[in-house]
Amino acid sequence: MPLAVRFDEYGDVDVLRVEEVPRPVPGPGQVLVAVKAAGINPGEASIRKGLLHAVWPATFPSGQGSDLAGVVVEVGSDVTRFGVGDEVLGFVDTRSSQAELVVADADHLVTRPGPVPWEVAGSLFVVGTTAYAAVRAVKVVSGDTVVVSGAAGGVGSIAVQLATDAGAKVIGLASEGHHAWLAGHGVIPVAYGDGVAERIKEAGGGRTDAFIDTFGGGYVEMAVALGVGPDRIDTIIDRAAAQEYGAKTDGSAAAASAEVLAELAGKIAGGRLELPIAKTYPLTEVREAFRELEQRHTLGKIVLVP
Ligand SMILES: NC(=O)c1ccc[n+]([C@@H]2O[C@H](COP(=O)([O-])OP(=O)(O)OC[C@H]3O[C@@H](n4cnc5c(N)ncnc54)[C@H](OP(=O)(O)O)[C@@H]3O)[C@@H](O)[C@H]2O)c1
Predict the structure, then answer these.
(1) Sign of torsion, CA 208 212 218 220?
(2) Alpha carbon 305 to chain centroid distance?
(3) How far lies 297's CA from each of 3, 225, 277, 300, in Å?
(4) In the chain, N or C terminus with fewer CB closer than 10 Å?
(5) Nearest-atom index, ligand 1, CA of 46
(6) Is-contact 98 304, C-beta < 8 A?
(7) Which among 54, 226, 212, 59 has a CA at the least distance from the CA of 148?
(8) Rounded to the nearest 5 degrees, what angle is found at the Cα of 222, between the Cα atoms of 219 and 223?
(9) What is the pTM (predicted TM-score) of this model?
(10) Are 233 and 135 in contact (CB under 8 A)?
(11) 41 in helix, strand or coil?
């Protein structure tokens, strides 16, 4: 029987288990994927802790995960786009990707371009579509100065590259240890913490046109104080501040499509976009993987490898 991540109650990482489950069966329009890699995301930790119960309640026993990449091993009726043996990446909206065998809708998958490593393919969907939506929301154009908080994280590391690709001067807020990676990707690294607004002004020559907040904790307010118009601020985390200041909240849902995923995977295959992989863990070490993620200092992605 295949292994899958499960939890039966809200709680810390210790409620997570990896257990044998019945082999899933693909229905019409679906395929069964043998998972090679499945990224983990902070939102999954929030759901598991019950912090999002009011909006996205869990039903128990719950599986976990959206991102995946793997090999098609079974095809449901009506599926013509994929056949057994095809290598795919994509997502599920059934909280189930962190498992050895996963049923996915065929139209939530795209073909894995050969040059995209499994662990990158399997962790691209959530952060890639979120970064894509955020950069689009603030209407980045050539010559803009754009600030990204959490610039080295999963979403931030892609957002900074999409913004530089659009011709913007990008200031990335990150801890010292991640400055070299940002500078190597054409981003001006700036340390967060006391005095950050002054350092942003200095780095941007007094100009900030747009602000993408992937961290929360006051960055929307800071962006407004820096003179950025609310229509050019996007936060993917601080809905209260967005409401207060009229900022945008475009995230994954605004760009969650196979087309966007294929575009991003194509950029990675072509060497125009990088998704750094901080660490991989075996599926059975899902607790350790989330312990590390929940420190909130990841460069890029942490990925489970069944
Ligand atoms: N709305 C949506 O659709 C959507 C989608 C995806 C994610 N999210 C949310 O967006 C957030 C980011 O997700 P993620 O996957 O990118 O997380 P992540 O990979 O865990 O990124 C965390 C990043 O935050 C940075 N950070 C830590 N303390 C900071 C501070 N005080 N100021 C600025 N940056 C700081 C870290 O940088 P250093 O390591 O350099 O300290 C790290 O790179 C999460 O809260 C997640 O739930 C929302």
Answers:
(1) positive
(2) 17
(3) 29, 26, 13, 9
(4) N
(5) 47
(6) yes
(7) 212
(8) 90
(9) 0.98
(10) no
(11) coil
- Say what percent of the chain tops pLDDT 70: 100
Q: Tokens for 271?
A: 């060497």
Report how far ligand 1's centroid is from the alpha carbon of 214 (Å). 5
- For 78-102, the pLDDT digits (tens) are 999 999 999 999 999 999 999 999 9
> Residue 83, class by beta-carbon neighbours within 10 Å (0-12 exposed, 13-18 middle, 19+ buried)?
exposed
- Spatial contact of 181 and 152, defined as CB atoms under 8 Å apart: yes
Q: Give the pLDDT band (50/70/90) at residue 13.
A: very high
Q: What pLDDT is attached to residue 186?
A: 98
3-state DSSP call for residue 285? helix
Most ligand 1 atoms within 8 A of CB, residue of 47, 126, 175, 250 to mutate: 175
Taking the C-alpha atoms of residue 102 and residue 93, their distance in angstroms, rounded to an integer, is: 11
pLDDT band at residue 297, thresholds of 50, 70 and 90? very high
Interacting residues of 155 by C-beta distance below 8 A, sequence separation 6+: 127, 130, 131, 134, 214, 236
Atom of ligand 1 nearest to the CA of 300: 19
Q: Pick from 158, 108, 149: which is nearest to 130 by CA?
A: 158
Residue 245's Cβ-count burial label (10 Å; 0-12, 13-18, 19+) is: middle
> Taking CB atoms and a 6 Å cutoff, what residues make up the pocket around ligand 1?
41-43, 126-127, 130, 149-150, 152-156, 173-175, 178, 192, 214-215, 236-237, 251-252, 293, 296-298
Number of residues written out for the chain:
306
DSSP letter, residue 99? B
